[in-house]
């Protein structure tokens, strides 16, 4: 929306890190008294309010990252976000003669951070987040904002630490990090997911008793804003394992897809073996499905684990 005759040339008087009641801000400069993005009809500004405490349960990890940009998730709680309304106001702020004003907090007293501009090379990117109310995953817009006058502080987004470093690296299984924790953090694990975690920890303990080096892999694909985590990687045998807490067809098909995705990044794309860890053997057709893709089966039995050829897992693999 271009500046209209209703907008005034009220000079901007707030210095960075000034605290102000949001209602007082609205009275002086316009905008909204609630919500995350508030284009003003009273002044040539687009107000952006960031509240990590409120945002993270929805998979919104707003904040400073290592690229010295403030990453801010767009608006829209249902379905894929669209580049319209407040999102379009951010994208088009320069062309419409508006300043982007970012505030920390969304209700009551908020803190003005600075005037920002969109990064020239990559103004925004897409990533996954759940619908409000722990609904299905959808695509959301994340804007990359650069401050005009303040020095960017050290990274403070929860994602910053996990995205730092090489695109693929070993991490301890004990951390129990999952992809879902960085996409739908408010999601309560299903019973099948709890069984997955239990299976992984039991297999890890079994392999370590055999002297194996066991880790998991943290993967950050290029241009992606969320990490991937494999369930288990047996570095001693080059076995990449994906666990599922149920033997139903959909879970096994998902495990196949995850392994195909992960293997591009693990051990230079060449793990010696792919395997699915299940609580028990699945139906014969599903065993055939795994075999047709060159994927082995691991499941617990009699206090230990066996693989798809019926052999006990020992030091050299199957």
Describe the model.
Strands 1, 2, 3, 4, 5, 6, 7, 8 and 9 form a nine-stranded mixed β-sheet that branches. Strands 10, 11, 12, 13, 14, 15, 16 and 17 form an eight-stranded mixed β-sheet that branches. Strand 14, helix 6 (249-262) and strand 15 (273-277) form a beta-alpha-beta unit. The termini are far apart. With 318 residues, the protein is of the alpha+beta class. The protein is elongated. The chain is 21% helix and 28% strand. It contains seven helices and 17 strands.
Low-confidence runs: 1-5, 314-318
Helical coverage, percent range: 10-25%
Number of domains: 2
> Describe the biggest sheet?
9 strands, mixed
So, the CATH homologous superfamily of the largest domain? Answer: SRA-YDG
Radius of gyration: 24 Å
Query: Do you know the CATH architecture of the largest domain?
Result: Roll
H/E element sequence = EHEEHEEHEEEEHEHEEEEHEHEE
- Helix count from the secondary structure assignment: 7
| Class based on secondary structure composition and strand pairing | alpha+beta
Strand content: 25-35%
Average pLDDT reading: 84
End-to-end Cα distance: 65 Å
Kindly report the CATH topology of the largest domain. PUA domain-like
Number of strands: 17
Q: How does the overall form come out from the CA principal axes?
A: elongated
Name of the top-level CATH class of the largest domain? Mainly Beta
């Amino acid at each position: 929306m271009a500046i209209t005759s209703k907008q005034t040339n009220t000079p901007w008087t707030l210095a960075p890190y000034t605290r102000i009641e949001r209602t007082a801000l609205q009275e002086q400069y316009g905008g909204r008294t609630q919500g995350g993005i508030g284009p003003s009809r009273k002044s040539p500004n687009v107000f952006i309010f960031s509240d990590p405490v409120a945002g993270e349960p929805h998979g919104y990890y707003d904040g400073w990252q290592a690229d010295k940009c403030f990453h801010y998730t767009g608006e829209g709680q249902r379905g894929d976000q669209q580049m319209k309304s407040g999102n379009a106001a951010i994208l088009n702020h320069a062309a419409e003669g508006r300043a982007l004003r970012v505030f920390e907090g969304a209700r009551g007293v908020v803190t003005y951070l600075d005037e920002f501009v969109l990064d020239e090379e990559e103004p925004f990117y897409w990533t996954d987040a759940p619908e409000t109310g722990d609904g299905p995953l959808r695509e959301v817009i994340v804007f990359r904002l650069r401050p005009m006058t303040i020095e960017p502080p050290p990274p403070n987004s929860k994602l910053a630490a996990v995205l730092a470093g090489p695109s693929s690296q070993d991490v301890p299984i004990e951390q129990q990090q999952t992809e879902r924790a960085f996409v739908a953090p408010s999601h309560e694990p299903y019973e099948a997911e709890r069984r997955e975690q239990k299976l992984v920890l039991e297999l890890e303990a079994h392999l370590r008793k055999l002297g194996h080096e066991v880790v998991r892999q943290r993967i950050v694909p290029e241009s992606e804003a969320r990490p991937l985590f494999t369930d288990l990687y047996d570095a001693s045998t080059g076995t990449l394992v994906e666990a599922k807490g149920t033997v139903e067809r959909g879970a096994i098909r998902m495990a196949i897809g995850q392994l195909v995705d992960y293997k591009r990044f693990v051990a230079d794309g060449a793990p010696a073996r792919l395997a699915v860890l299940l609580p028990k053997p699945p139906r014969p057709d599903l065993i055939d499905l795994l075999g047709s893709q060159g994927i082995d089966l691991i499941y617990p039995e009699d206090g230990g684990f066996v693989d798809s050829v019926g052999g006990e897992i020992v030091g050299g693999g199957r």
